[in-house]
Design brief:
159 residues
């Protein structure tokens, strides 16, 4: 497994994850391991967004309080895991997490980019809608329309 391509979650063909998203996915994997989970779900991705100093500014750019998000995620699943064996080096992403990555690619494409950024991943999570991670973001006040508008502004500013 190379650092450039996390095992079990690859960007859709024609797209690449930004370095920020690679760091985010590594942090989500670490969050799952710390919790004793043998899978990486959207809640781990959102927890990583809220807890990792190198990626949490994404939430601030989208107008969401990282501490509130972290508290909400930590309230959703138990700290001691689900009794499953640890991941052991293989990243087992859930179907909802994979679907969110596909939707993130659509977001990036909509902004004329081939690299999937962290904001695109948040948009993908919100578009997926039914996952724990998406529900946490919505409970913390982030609506899809808001995320799209702010991502659009950030994309325009980057040009």
């Amino acid at each position: 497994m190379s650092a450039a391509e996390p095992a079990d979650l690859l960007p859709p063909e024609g797209f690449a994850f930004t370095d920020e998203v690679h760091r985010l996915l590594a942090a989500a994997y670490a969050a799952a391991q710390r919790r004793g989970h043998n899978w990486v779900g959207t809640e781990h991705v959102v927890l990583a967004l809220a807890q990792q100093p190198e990626v949490w500014p994404v939430l601030a750019r989208l107008g969401v309080d990282a501490a509130r998000v972290a508290g909400d995620v930590l309230g959703v699943f138990p700290p001691d895991g689900d009794g499953a064996p640890p991941l052991g080096g293989r990243r087992m992403y859930t179907d909802r997490t994979r679907h969110a990555a596909i939707l993130a690619a659509r977001s990036a494409h909509g902004f004329g980019r081939s690299r999937i950024g962290a904001e695109d991943l948040v948009v993908g999570l919100l578009r997926e809608g039914g996952s724990v991670g998406a529900q946490v973001l919505m409970r913390c006040g982030l609506a899809l329309e808001t995320a799209l508008a702010r991502t659009r502004r950030l994309a325009a500013a980057a040009e």
